[in-house]
Amino acid sequence: MKICVLPGDGIGPEIIAEAVRVLKALDLKLEMEEALLGGCAVDATGSPYPDATQKLALAADAVLLGAVGGPQWDNNPREQRPERGLLGIRKQLGLFANLRPAILYPELANASTLKPEVVAGLDILIVRELTGDIYFGQPRGIELRTIDGQQQRFGFNTMHYSESEIRRILRVAFEAAKKRNRKVCSVDKMNVLECTQLWRDVAIETAQDYPDVELSHMLVDNAAMQLVKNPKQFDVMVTGNMFGDILSDEASMLTGSIGMLPSASLDANNKGLYEPSHGSAPDIAGKGVANPLATILSAAMMLRYTFGNEDAALRIEGAVKKVLAQGFRTGDIYESGTKKVGTREMGDAVLAAL
Ligand code: NAD
User: Mind telling me the catalytic residues?
Assistant: First the structure.
């Protein structure tokens, strides 16, 4: 079980160090090797995704990533921006399925802007298609056209999905639901967009292979409303790239604690890239105060989805629940009456709870 570890920039190295300590403590046969990605890679090699990192990432079974980016690289030429490294690795590894859980631990219910009774105990998983849809469809562009006898700028993009692209992401959602509460809600806009009518048709066909999972459908505008009105009705939500981009950010904000949210991006063989949903937090980098739990929970997702080790994943998730119940909090989730700790102490607490 080979893991390519990419600490990245900002708080990346601090939070990754804690996730690596947790993985090592599990005593599994994991081989971990570090490489450079993002701004630190630009500084060292001139490229945000250097050859040595590509080689390691391609040879590994999974990639564990901190975060990339920071103001010092914002004015670099496009090819030397940290985000280029991120897009490069996602593309090269063929990661088409993005899994983002939004979990609100009962102890953190006050962190949400919604009423505690609406969100406490929330546990949903958003499955977003990552490589298709209007974000990549051709033709696209902005050009001059003559419209109504007048030359003007004209912007256009193309939404498209093939049935095989839809089927493979639906399968990821159904498989994930089998490990959870066996409910899939497929989100589309079939009343307006033919492309998403096909999405719904393929969802219905795919569901026949999963008789033990309940499939429902929802239009995207209603899904956006239901997420804030009654989010606990959902188990797994699956949708295309653009709707998923928006709904997954909305869902993560329901929890109010970005430092807690892991994510996974998978290829067709369950090889995955695992990273926290947040960025490199340059404002607190190097201070030892960042919350490492999103990264530690990303490591748990890696054990579940790439290595098929549900027990080890549950052990990590159980330890995180325990430290929250014990009252340990980093600054981002702190409230009076709890124990404020730094990154390393939070890692220590998780190790003790394991
Ligand atoms: P951010 O997520 O880095 O930070 C937003 C706010 O949340 C900040 O106040 C930050 O201190 C706080 N925060 C984030 N993670 C935290 C943690 N683990 N513990 C405690 N507090 C935490 O978003 P941003 O400020 O918009 O972006 C900063 C940089 O990160 C930018 O360069 C951006 O491009 C990059 N970024 C990278 C990724 C990625 O690597 N996947 C994702 C988003 C943003």
Answer: 135, 189, 221, 245, 249
> At 290, phi and psi to the nearest 5?
-65, 150
Count the alpha carbons within 13 Å of 322 in the hemisphere toward its beta carbon. 14
Q: Give residue-wise pLDDT tens across range 173-212.
A: 999 999 899 999 999 999 999 999 999 999 999 999 999 9
Q: Helix, strand, or coil here: 274?
A: strand
278 Cα: distance to centroid of ligand 1 (angstroms): 5
Pocket probe mutation, ligand 1, options 40, 76, 81, 280, max atoms within 8 Å of Cβ: 280
Of all protein residues, whose CA lies closest to atom 37 belonging to ligand 1? Answer: 279
Q: What is the DSSP string of 60-98?
A: SSEEEEEE---GGGTTS-GGGSHHHHHHHHHHHTT--EE
Burial of 25 (0-12, 13-18, 19+ CB in 10 A): middle
Distances in Å between the alpha carbon of 161 and those of 98, 135, 168, 216?
16, 11, 11, 20
Half-sphere exposure of 45 (CA within 13 A, CB side): 16
- Mean pLDDT, the chain, rounded, equals 95
Q: For residues 26 and 35, what is the distance between their CA atoms, to the nearest angstrom?
A: 22
Q: Is the CB of 70 under 6 A from ligand 1?
A: yes
* Cβ contact 284:12 at 8 Å: no
Query: Which protein residue's CA is at the shortest distance from atom 22 of ligand 1?
Result: 259
For residue 13, count other CB atoms closer than 10 A to its CB.
17
Taken in order of first residue, the domains within the chain and their CATH numbers are 1-96+267-354 (3.40.718.10), 104-257 (3.40.718.10)
For the full predicted model, state whether its pTM sits above 0.70.
Answer: yes
